[in-house]
DNA sequence: TAAGTGATCTCT
DNA sequence: GAGATCACTTAA
């Protein structure tokens, strides 16, 4: 393994959700499947932050599905939707504060459901820590992301959240 | 542009 | 229990 690459610790995720989202751009998502290791650069993320965020699953309170969002920073929140797609999120912030970052795209994979398919991410990872022992983790390999390369836009597919929350610029895109 | 697909949430 | 919804993708 490259000397410069380092695995992000749980602490990385225990910060303001928007900062974590932005800082995840340029980091590598790494997946171990048996003997094979897949990795790719994270290029698109969205923040879902707090109780009031009407676009977030958490805004109606804790349910069986969104329970991991209320957990500690640095665990996965994986859920199934549209009858066929898994979504990958990483939980941020303090325990009992519901927040997470949705990984929407990688350099060679666009679309949140396609990346979970390619990386074989499913509910088994739900609630597991973002670390090597889970077989899925995030590494900093020294990619420098300048402010000019970051585009900030409203989130996708959340029009139902009403004018205020649907327009929040909580989506970050890394354009290299 | 719309169908597919099924878990989950929100009422009865 | 029933009905609606859904942080999407693909095919046309």
UniProtKB/TrEMBL annotation:
GO terms for molecular function: alkylbase DNA N-glycosylase activity; DNA binding. CDD domains: AAG. The keyword DNA-binding does not apply. It holds the Pfam family Pur_DNA_glyco. It comes from the Bacteria. InterPro entries: Formyl_transferase-like_C_sf (IPR011034), MPG (IPR003180), MPG_sf (IPR036995). Keywords: DNA damage, DNA repair, Hydrolase. It is an enzyme of class 3 (hydrolase). The keyword Cytoplasm does not apply. One of its GO terms (biological process) is base-excision repair. Its EC number is 3.2.2.-. PANTHER family: DNA-3-METHYLADENINE GLYCOSYLASE (PTHR10429:SF0). Belongs to the DNA glycosylase MPG family. NCBIfam families: 3mg (TIGR00567). This is Putative 3-methyladenine DNA glycosylase. It comes from Candidatus Taylorbacteria bacterium RIFCSPHIGHO2_02_FULL_45_35.
């Amino acid at each position: 393994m490259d000397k410069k690459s380092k695995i992000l610790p749980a602490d990385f995720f225990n910060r303001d959700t928007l900062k974590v989202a932005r800082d995840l751009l340029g980091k590598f998502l790494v997946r171990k499947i048996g003997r094979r290791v897949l990795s790719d650069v994270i290029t698109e993320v969205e923040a879902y932050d707090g109780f009031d965020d009407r676009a977030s699953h958490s805004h109606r309170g804790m349910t069986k599905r969104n329970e991991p969002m209320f957990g500690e920073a640095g665990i996965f929140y994986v859920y199934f939707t549209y009858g066929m797609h898994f979504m990958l999120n990483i939980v941020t912030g303090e325990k009992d504060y519901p927040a997470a970052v949705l990984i929407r795209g990688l350099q060679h994979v666009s679309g949140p459901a396609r990346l979970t398919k390619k990386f074989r991410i499913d509910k088994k990872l739900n609630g597991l820590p973002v670390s090597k022992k889970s077989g899925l983790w995030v590494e900093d390999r020294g990619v420098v992301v300048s402010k000019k390369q970051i585009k900030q836009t409203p989130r996708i597919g959340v029009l139902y959240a009403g004018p205020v929350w649907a327009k929040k610029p909580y989506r970050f895109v890394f354009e290299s």
